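User: Hey, my collaborator sent me this sequence without any context and asked if I could get a structure. I don't really work with proteins. Can you help?
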Amino acid sequence: MSEVWVDIMTTKQVWFLGKLVEYLQDKGVETYVTVRKYQENTEVLERAIADGRLDFKYEVTGVHGGASNEGKLDAFLKRCQVHLERIKDKDVACAFSLSSPECARVAYGLAVPHICTSDSPFSKAASLLTFPISEKIICSNLSRIEDFVKVGADPEKIIMFNGIDEIAWTRDFKPDPRVLDEAGLDGSKPIVIVRALSPHFAENAPFFKDTETGIEDVIQKILDRTGPEVQVVAIPRYGEQGPILRKAFGDKITVIDYTEGPSLTSQADVLISCGGTMNREASLLGTFAISIDPLCKHPMAYGEKYLHEQGILLPTLDMNEAADKAIELLNSEDLRNQVKDKAAKIRSEMEDPIPVFYREIKEYLE
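Assistant: No problem. I've predicted the 3D structure and written it out in structure-token form, which is a compact way to encode the shape of the chain:
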């Protein structure tokens, strides 16, 4: 029987494309899953499989190439070679990825149709390497087709669904209760999560100047206005940021080097983060998200714009505004409950993209 090749590259895709893999398997479709090791994605996947929240086999095929162009190219070439060796003798009906250059290129070279999904054409390089050689490009109807066309997409190949990617795993998400205990957090007390900024965005973030993480200022502002009952949790983006935060704040905050994002954010009272996926995910799970991502007000931040309009996400680069909003939420249970109600309504009304993916994949299985 023909297989569907699914390539997973990030932690978001563990949940997103993991749901697709399970959906395909439930429909009797055989799958071959490859995973690029990047940050904590394989740890999250292993944990989800171990506790039964995901159930499929996979193979790790390469790593992220790091920040340099040379490193990225080297990792791309090596991963393509591994994929070629794995795929060339398989009966693959089609390949599916979220703008995976290696998956798209190897599939194209072996005359295997590649279906690409994309939450935004922010990443010009990945878009240019995948859109032109994909048979179909599936994206949210909150997107603008012209933005995809600018980076190589054929408008005739674009298919839209009525929703946001994160609906796929937030609609029926069940948090892992162990996450709070493992972090030493008390679920009966307020929790504020603050996620560090990547130095990659420093030049676009005025608040990043003279800091190592971009979040020291907002953490201090929250500590100055709350008591010890409020638990402030900092999540570094890179390994070196953890020791910096621990040195700066000591035992006044909890620094978590690794955690399962949705399980933690869904049990928090407010999130301040520069991570696009984490912000959208948290707000859809009912936790108000304050986005300090320098790209949060970009015209192509489609999901953030929609969630802001719905009143469950605030995009800002002003740390005073971020702290003020966090304090407002901490002081109002009614406001937090309103966020949960709005999020539940959005989750129930938006379209799950997974059945849409299956519908398009099925054409190559017939």
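In plain terms: Residues 178-349 form a domain with the Rossmann fold fold (CATH 3.40.50.2000). You can pass these tokens on to your collaborator as they are.
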